[in-house]
């Protein structure tokens, strides 16, 4: 089957054929959804032959593949990306126009799959895009959640979670393959037995199982013909329906097995504050890695392949701790099913995994109770104990007599209940351990996994995150991409370091004028979208000050909010005149985890502050706050190109990297931020004069914490801070209810775990520098252009080259 090539006429014929045969309608009787599904099928058919050829070439070449194991993939829209990668955009637009249809209208019909929570899932999507573009064999493995990250709505300013029904109108980009389903077992017991050779073996007798059904998604490289695979697993019951029970009249019981099985892939990150929620999360994690390992061994390797050499053909990248249960699963396969001795199985396993740690927060490093593991995965718990025993012998040999160190490093933690430290298991099994920004990787070595770095210093490395320039510049900011093409040619799309060639244009008056025109156009586009989508009207002529990221205390949305309230209070009290406030719209976008009370209270407070500030005539319209609900990739693609100021204000030493900071800088926003995560590298690259630095350094944070941080002292000594917090406590933003926001304010005054009050004055001072620069639009534009020119380093293509060289030790296919 040869790859189709489409002219406009050919595209129209194929589109109408899909509309007639797949949707069963004529053009005149078709709905917009029919038209979208037919368009998606037309583009998918174009890519399909290239996908099949990619799979054939990869298997024939017997080359090493990257198995990217991730619980999250925040993909964004598939249609736009497929049109870009296949160079079909103009043909499709003209073909649809000839049919009396509009490509933007059909594009708007797509519901993006919300299969991720934020940066982790978006990073995974960027990485698999880059690997395809770089011609590197890769299979992304994950879960096809029936309901992804919730759809966020606001009711009286409070977050309300609605189901994310992304599959409701069809999923044209996936290929289900039920015939390739994998049985995944749970529960039961283990037993010892003697095999035919007289060797003592172990057998797992599971209590129940489910089927993992693969759904394949194509991951096209940019204009290179390669199409890699993303394989997402959906859970179904092995025996979904009991006819005898149904005929007896117990209809609910008849489908109980189906309901129970399908819960596993029902929802992204089930709320885990209950024992049932915790168990479901562990089921999810084992479900997808067990299916993925079995899939690769059965379907990607030739018959008779010697699994002693498995690392020659695969490296499984553990994207955080969620997939780490894959380590004992591979051991189980090799020992129990393939007859390996323990030592040779461990030798093979240790060559097949690498581990990326994405956090510095101790609570984010997963620990599973041995009671739960033993009940759900008894054989795996036995293997973990054996791995730990083997590992601790090595610790004792290297550090004889150091029992305290051995206890710190043990995979098993003895706390209120015994548990398995999954980050420690990953560190023991991985060929390499990497952080995701220079500072983060240093803190991993020095603090989070220090004992492991002492034992294996060569095992640790850094790979700073990156973002795909295809989606987040070429596609999201196409007016700017046209300007880049006119100035540099089109090669920057796959060689982002070429943005360095823009530096001289920071002094070019014509280029600066066009740059400002693009930014103004992006603001108008965003204004139109938010008005139609949310009923939010953005004022003209305002600095657009943007903070979009997951709502978490360490990211410090509360600090941004205190700045807003302080400005407002100073106008009300007459400390400053409204005319002296730089016209500014602060735009938030954030979701709080459903069970995270403080985060949800913060969202409520932001929305209530917005209601009051936006309607107070005393501000003369110079300060506005907007919080569109349900921030996602689709909204990000319109919002990021419009931003003037990027808020990256986490407490130093808390953010692993960030990728939003990179997207904003690449699209011409200036950053106000702490020396945290990849902010450090952004500042070093763009230069101090083009970055608004504030706040304590990580060592200063550590020293303040060790000395005994007292946030109340900052509240008492800083008049503007005190007045802002008191204004909230007075009930000014809550209709006179003086206690509605006590949870947020009293937490800041009495605890303030992430030291927002300590950094408040430094942040306000940095904002004054922002306003001074923004008042000089020539200087601001120059800084914005230099931010773009100097941040080409943050391409996910560069990240992938670093992984290939430092961790995976493989090369692209020729």
Description:
- Among the domains are: 301-462, Glycogen Phosphorylase B (Rossmann fold), CATH 3.40.50; 469-800, Glycogen Phosphorylase B (Rossmann fold), CATH 3.40.50.
- 48% of the residues lie in helices and 15% in strands.
- It contains 33 helices and 25 strands.
- Strands 1, 4, 7, 8, 11, 12, 13, 14, 18 and 19 form a 10-stranded mixed sheet that branches.
- It is globular.
- The model has no long low-confidence stretch (mean pLDDT 95).
- Its cofactor is pyridoxal 5'-phosphate.
- It catalyses: [(1->4)-alpha-D-glucosyl](n) + phosphate = [(1->4)-alpha-D-glucosyl](n-1) + alpha-D-glucose 1-phosphate.
- Pfam families: Phosphorylase.
Going by CATH, the homologous superfamily of the domain at 469-800 would be Glycogen Phosphorylase B
**Radius of gyration (Å):** 27 Å
The top level CATH class name of the domain at 469-800: Alpha Beta
Helix coverage percent? 40-55%
Q: In CATH terms, what is the architecture of the domain at 469-800? A: 3-Layer(aba) Sandwich
Strand content: 5-15%
The N- to C-terminal Cα distance equals: 22 Å
Query: Which descriptor suits the 3D outline?
Result: globular
Number of strands: 25
CATH fold field value of the domain at 469-800: Rossmann fold
- Main sheet record: 10 strands, mixed
Low-confidence stretches: none
Task: Count helical runs.
Answer: 33
Protein structure class: alpha/beta
Q: Kindly state the mean pLDDT as a whole number?
A: 95
Keywords: Carbohydrate metabolism, Glycosyltransferase, Pyridoxal phosphate, Transferase
Enzyme class: transferase
Pfam family, one: Phosphorylase
Protein name: Alpha-1,4 glucan phosphorylase
